[in-house]
Specification:
177 residues; mainly alpha; 76% helix
């Protein structure tokens, strides 16, 4: 209950969706029946949710900025030279390049660190997925969902959590109850 209250108090739609995704994945691991129902119902619920959300938030500036962000990103890519595309424009400079604070971690990484930096970051996430196996679903996927709305400030915390989980999983770090 405390978990839900804390997530709701963030007032972050992405955090709420990420939390719901984590809960669905957790319960789908308990039973094959729940897993089957989840895989059948989630696409339908997602489509319905998209229709409802897009209608409800049609005049929401924060929601609409997500789409404007993609438009600005593609305009940036069209005008950027090969060095900017490969190496980026430098950390913290995305706002100067696209004219708004990018509330999307992936787009921010591509703009600021280029394709090389983005590839390095994704390589670390992929490594963690292989190292943590199924446990990564509870951490990596919700993080990627939440990263669609300003999670760049959480990168040091999430990376610390990832590596702590890797140590626990490899039994180099013991948790005593």
């Amino acid at each position: 209950m405390l978990y839900f209250i804390l997530i709701l108090l963030t007032f972050s739609r992405a955090a709420i969706v990420g939390a719901l995704f984590s809960i669905i994945v957790f319960y789908s691991q308990i039973s094959k029946r729940i897993r089957l129902v989840s895989f059948l119902i989630i696409p339908l619920f997602s489509f319905w949710g998209y229709l409802e959300i897009s209608e409800a938030f049609a005049n929401d500036v924060s929601f609409n900025s997500k789409f404007h962000l993609f438009d600005s990103f593609f305009i940036y890519l069209y005008h950027a030279d090969i060095y900017q595309i490969l190496l980026g424009v430098g950390l913290g400079n995305a706002i100067d390049v696209i004219g708004m604070g990018a509330h999307n971690l992936m787009l921010t990484l591509i703009i600021e660190t280029g394709l090389i930096g983005f590839t390095c970051f994704m390589s670390v996430l992929i490594f963690l997925c292989f190292k943590l196996r199924m446990d990564s679903i509870y951490i990596v996927l919700p993080f990627l969902i939440v990263s669609m709305s300003l999670s760049g400030t959480a990168i040091p915390y999430i990376m610390t959590l990832f590596y702590l989980l890797v140590l626990i999983k490899s039994e180099k770090f013991k948790v005593i109850h």
